Amino acid sequence: MNPVEARLAGCRPWALVFGEHKKAIPPKIRQQIAELRRSDNWRNLLHVGGDWLAMGLAAAAALSSGMHPVAYALAVVAVGSRQRALRSLVHEASHEKLFRNARLNNAVGQLLVAFPLMTSMTAYRCAHRQHHGHLWDPEHDPKMSKYAELGLISPPDGTRTHFVKKHILRPLLLAEVPSNLVSDLSWKAKPRAENASRYAVWLGVVAALSWLGWLDEFALLWLVPFCTTYQVFRYWSDMADHAGLYSADPWRSSRSWNGSWLVVQLIGPHGANWHFPHHLFPQVPHYRVRQAHELLLRVPEYAAGHHCDGFFWPRRSGVASVVQDVRRGERDSAGRVVPAPAPSAAISVH
Predict the structure, then answer these.
(1) Measured distance CA(251)–CA(237) in Å, rounded
(2) Which residues pair with 97 in a beta bridge?
(3) Range of the structural domain that residue 117 is part of
């Protein structure tokens, strides 16, 4: 076993024990949430199939229009949003919640969800376990290193204009795409057998498309969305999860948000916007996580946490949007911003 495979093999299973902070949740609510943990072997077939069907319909509409610029632009947005949705299902598969059957979970999770995005299920699962088990730990939380790189651990310095330029416009200009592509395509920190499978699948697909004469369509209707809209939605969704909330308090270190149907579909599909209850109860599948959120709102500590309505702009008076909440950040009891650790403390994981 090489060092990479040894490290991945050392990833511990998901912790099922309640943390001390969960004692604030009444037993009745904990029991109701425990009942939401049921998964099955059919429901996510609809979600996976629905995402692929939506991409197929968007591509077909663009092609039938003769690749009219408007139809093509809409297809790039639609396909990129469903690629982002597939990434949410990679997350579900990494938690072993895509299907109850483990073999089905891993097979569909790899072939129809992770591999199309050039993602290693094993590496994703390992990093995500570290993230859950060591949230905001500068030595062990891989997500913290990315936030440190982007300047999103604590509220960004500067004006609102500065924030918009750095975290709204810069992703739109695809500044993060090169590093993301290098990370996705890299062989590092991923098992050799899974690397071989990923590349074999991609070579097989490209060979089949070449034989059919569809390489141009594939480039325009899969690769272009993957390198553009998908990357933008991925950045904003990752920012919404924890950015600005550096805190050791589990009730204050994650964020949930709601928005219009369209915005949720673009940025937080498959329950990705309900990230706060997911961190408290990671075994609840995405199609029931909002129910967990509604139950937890009866708990004062949870209700006082970071809950937003609207992504870029607030939809209701007195409730912050995600962007507003990120800019404000987590604060201590005196209302002061919780300072981020020294930059050198953050680990670097790709």
Answers:
(1) 20
(2) none
(3) 3-8+36-345
What angle do the packed helices 229-242 and 142-150 form, to 10 degrees? 110
Summarize pLDDT for 71-103 with one digit per residue, the tens: 999 999 999 999 999 999 999 999 999 999 999
CA 260, 306, 133, 339 dihedral sign is positive
Residues contacting residue 218 through CB under 8 Å, at least 6 positions apart: 206, 209
Q: Does residue 214 lie within any of the structural domains?
A: yes
Pairs from 2-7 (Cβ < 8 Å, separation ≥ 24) = 2/192, 4/188, 4/189, 4/190, 4/191, 4/192, 5/191, 5/192, 7/126, 7/189
In Å, the largest CA–CA distance within the chain is 66
pLDDT in tens, 114-153: 999 999 999 999 999 989 988 998 888 989 888 988 989 8
Report DSSP letters for 239-291, one per residue: HHHHTT---S-TTTS-EEEE--HHHHHHHSTTTTTBHHHHHH-TTS-GGGHHH
Question: How many domains, the chain?
Answer: 1
Q: 27-65 pLDDT, tens per residue? A: 999 999 999 999 999 999 999 999 999 999 999 999 999
In a domain, 24, yes or no: no
Distance, CA of 279 to CA of 135 (rounded, Å): 9
Mean pLDDT, rounded, of the chain: 89
Kindly report, residue by residue over 262-314, the tens digit of the pLDDT: 999 999 999 999 999 999 999 999 999 999 999 999 999 999 999 999 999 99
Structural domain contains residue 156: yes
Q: What is the C-alpha separation between 198 and 190, in angstroms, rounded?
A: 11
> Distance (Å, rounded) from C-alpha 196 to C-alpha 200?
6
Could you tell me if residue 26 is inside a domain? no
Which residue reads 């964020």 in tokens? 255
